[in-house]
Amino acid sequence: MDALLQDLSTPAEVIRKLELEKVPVGSIRRFWLHIVTDGMSVPVHVPVIVARGKKDGPVFGVTAAVRGNEINGIPLIQRLFSEIDLETLSGFVVGVPVVNVPSFLLRERNFLDGSDLNAIMPGKANGSNGPLYAFRIMDRLIKYFHYLLDFHTASFGRINAHYIRADLNNRICREMAILQNAQVIVHNEPADGSLRGAANALGINAINLEIGSPHTFQKGFLRSGLIGIHNVLCNLGMIPGALELPEAKAYVCKNSYWLYTDSGGLLSVSPNVSELVFKGETIATLRNIFGDIIREYQAPEDGIVIGKSVDPVNQTGGRILHLGTF
């Protein structure tokens, strides 16, 4: 805490890449990482917090707001650095409260050019707006990590279970996923254009955590998120302590996919997130504006509800629910 108070009186330094050596042993420092410049030649800076323990160890990264409206990870990262014990920490913990700064300021999900930053990683060095921004995030920041937890939320009009995306064929990623005490873990191959996938391709052990809803801070997810981080840091030997394991194991899914409507109307999705559904079970009802049922949708196979639509106004091709299969 003394190191954090000391850092509050020190202006954040502007850097052009992550420079861990700038952080004294046993201290916390804040930086503004220059990524791009805007239309008035004003630098766009990504906030970075670095805690360096008094012992040597790996570099552990925590990121949030890769999509500009997915902000639940921000208070979690703030809380993490307010509680870090530098005396017992081995290595570095790097927090990035907002990855997608332009979209965060606009309160938008996608980047300025309409691209989804979490679908175009690792970007392109000579690309257009979104791909170039993605490339520089990877090149100037992420590539220096050994481990990564990337926090996301549901999108507009949808809710998610507390779930993890990870390459379960990677032993370390599988352990990191299990230690999050989530409701559901979904196996997801790394080559998917996500920040997690791009990090995996660099040899960084990375997983996605989906917690809560967009455009809001939800305190209920703070504790579960912090427990997951604590568990991974303990498991890596970066901090002392015992693991906090859940009473019930997570459901592990080999695959997941969304179900979509084939007509427009007012949609009502029956099962709640994290509920099991069975093949042939009615999962949603579509009504016209007069209230008549025009379509019912059934589960195509057994599975678990990872996410669902909560917006009743549905266009043709709208999302129904996100089904995980075992």
Short description:
The chain has 326 residues and is α/β, with parallel strands linked by helices. It has helices at residues 2-8, 73-83, 101-106, 129-140, 171-178, 195-201, 220-235, and strands spanning 13-15, 27-37, 43-52, 55-63, 90-96, 147-152, 158-160, 163-166, 184-187, 205-210, 251-253, 255-260, 265-269, 276-277, 282-287, 293-298, 303-309, 313-314, 319-325. Helix 2 (73-83) packs across helix 7.
Structure overview:
It is a single chain. Helix 5 (171-178) links the parallel strand 8 and strand 9 (184-187). The chain has 326 residues and is α/β, with parallel strands linked by helices. It contains seven helices and 19 strands. Helices cover 21% and strands 33% of the residues. A ten-stranded mixed β-sheet has the order 1-2-3-5-4-6-10-8-9-11, with helices on both faces. Strands 7, 12, 14, 17 and 19 form a five-stranded antiparallel β-sheet that branches. The model has no long low-confidence stretch (mean pLDDT 92). The protein folds into two domains: 2-235, Aminopeptidase; 256-325, OB fold (Dihydrolipoamide Acetyltransferase, E2P) (Beta Barrel), CATH 2.40.50.100.
